[in-house]
Write a structure and sequence with these properties.
Organism: Noviherbaspirillum suwonense
Distance between the termini: 18 Å
Shape: globular
Main location: cytoplasm
Protein name: Coproporphyrinogen-III oxidase
Radius of gyration: 22 Å
Oligomer: single chain
Number of helices: 16
Strand content: 15-25%
Catalytic activity: coproporphyrinogen III + 2 S-adenosyl-L-methionine = protoporphyrinogen IX + 2 5'-deoxyadenosine + 2 L-methionine + 2 CO2
Keywords: 4Fe-4S, Cytoplasm, Iron, Iron-sulfur, Metal-binding, Oxidoreductase, Porphyrin biosynthesis, S-adenosyl-L-methionine
Bound molecules: iron/sulfur cluster
Length: about 475
């Protein structure tokens, strides 16, 4: 039975209404950026990126940076994977890559000399711990030579860890190297599901990594789960949730598996008949909300749960939550400098993405050029809509007078079409609109992407190449 239910979360509450979700779910972006990456253009190149950095310098003042480093290698492929990665057992490839990555970091360090205080660092992949301990040590020492990292109690330094690649001494070593937050890929503890997605990862292994992270003094431990994988049912999900709750991470992300085999080759190895039905997926989602909120986690938004005392939940209560390519973040408005193949930077009013292949990456850096492949300059309209989408995603409400103060517009006139669309969602009970506020209701929180899509100007343009986004729920 999937009737409406309000989970007993600490604020903000979230209401699960299966009938409404069934009626309104559709394909849509996750809005880790706006405009979304599929709007980037090759007309934006290295020269544009240099101009964006010059703009940051001219802006004056000290704005701390966010740094992202992409390690694309994985030892084996998980069939659900939609990441940009290179699956190889030839470890020497990582050594060559590391050399070039360090060159890119040095070039970026020169560009930001004098304004290079980093308060947020994230290593993602692929599998960052594909690098050996010594290689990681070398990389972090290099980062410290090129950028000034804020002290441990201020900076947020996180790494994605595949529990299959590390042991307790390695976790302690990562802490000594400066990481203070750790994110573990789990997806599901069920052995059959793990086999079906080619990611066999015993529960004991994951528990040992969590225990080591606590022991080593990591400030936040996060676990990633996925619902909708082959062979998953509400029953297997319930068992996994019980184990996850017992492990007690600070944050839990629960992603909806998007089966898009026309875009992501590994997914072609997943038997479609083994996938859960849309209704079963809804049951799993409902269960996640009920169990996690019942265990005291706060629904932060868009697949994310956190303990009430975790920084994300605190930042949300204080109105400081932000969203970027790594998901939710507590560091609002930091320019994001991203290094590595396919990495996306957000500097000033621009986004720029690096080339996607190793050969192209190496050849740009051999010419002493940053490997920018494409990007976009944001217009005033883009910046305004990005602000609105960010506010709604992070805080579930928007102050109309604050937008009118920051931008030379009359909200009702500028967003006449959008307000008309929102009124239809208001009738469905997803939000309320007053002259001062747009407020998402507990019922609308799970459908926040639908609400944000109303403000996405680019979605008005029809695409000819089929669905590119996952379902909003
Ligand atoms: S899911 Fe992660 S570990 Fe698995 S193949 Fe993709 S990037 Fe690699």
């Amino acid at each position: 039975m999937l009737g409406p239910q309000v989970a007993a979360c600490a604020t903000p509450v979230v209401e699960f209404d299966a009938a409404l979700i069934r009626r309104l779910r559709q394909s849509g972006p996750r809005y880790t950026s706006y405009p979304t990456a599929d709007r980037f253009s090759e007309a934006f190149g290295y020269g544009d990126y240099l101009q964006a950095v010059a703009g940051v310098r001219n802006r004056g003042g000290m704005h701390p940076l966010s740094l992202y480093l992409h390690i694309p290698f994985c030892d084996t492929v998980c069939y659900y994977c939609a990441c940009n990665k290179i699956v190889t057992k030839r470890r020497e490839k990582a050594l060559t890559y590391l050399g070039y990555l360090k060159r890119e970091i040095a070039l970026q360090g020169q560009l930001f000399a004098g304004i290079n205080q980093v308060e947020q660092l994230h290593l993602g992949g692929g599998t960052p711990t594909y690098l050996s301990d010594a290689q990681m040590e070398d990389l972090m020492a290099h980062v410290r030579r090129c950028f000034r990292l804020a002290p441990d109690d201020i900076g947020e330094y996180s790494i994605e860890v595949d529990p299959r690649t590390v042991d307790a001494p390695r976790i302690h070593s990562l802490r000594r190297q400066g990481f203070n937050r750790i994110s573990l890929g789990v997806q599901d503890f069920d052995a059959d599901v793990q086999k079906a997605v080619n990611r066999v990862q015993p529960e004991a292994e994951t528990r040992a990594v969590i225990a080591a992270a606590r022991d080593a003094g990591f400030r936040s431990v996060s676990i990633d789960l996925i619902y909708g994988l082959p062979l998953q049912t509400a029953g297997t999900m319930a068992a996994t949730l019980e184990k996850v709750i017992a492990a007690g991470p600070d944050r839990i992300s629960v992603y909806n598996y998007a089966h898009l085999p026309h875009l992501f080759k590994p997914q072609r190895r997943i038997a479609e008949e083994a996938l859960a039905s849309p209704d079963e997926k809804l049951r799993m989602l409902s269960l996640c909300i009920e169990r996690l909120c019942g265990a005291g986690y706060v629904y932060v938004g868009m697949d994310h749960f956190a303990r009430p005392d975790d920084e994300l939940a605190v930042a949300q209560r204080q109105g400081r939550l932000h969203r970027n390519f790594q998901g939710y973040s507590t560091h609002a408005d930091a320019d994001l400098v991203a290094c590595g193949v396919s990495a996306i930077s957000a500097v000033g009013p621009s986004y720029s993405q690096n080339v996607k292949t190793l050969d192209a990456y190496y050849s740009h850096l051999d010419r002493n050029e940053l490997p920018v492949a494409r990007g976009i300059w944001l217009s005033m309209d883009d910046v305004l809509r990005r602000l609105i989408i960010q506010r709604l995603m992070c805080h579930f409400e928007l102050s109309i007078p604050s937008v009118e103060q920051a931008y030379p517009i009359t909200f009702a006139a500028y967003f006449e079409r959008e307000l008309a669309q929102l009124r239809r969602l208001e009738q469905d009970g997803l939000l309320t609109i007053s002259p001062e506020w747009i407020s998402v209701t507990p019922r609308g929180r799970l459908l926040i992407r639908n609400i944000c899509m109303v403000f996405d100007r680019y979605l008005q343009e029809k695409r000819a190449d089929g669905p590119r986004y996952s379902r909003t729920i």
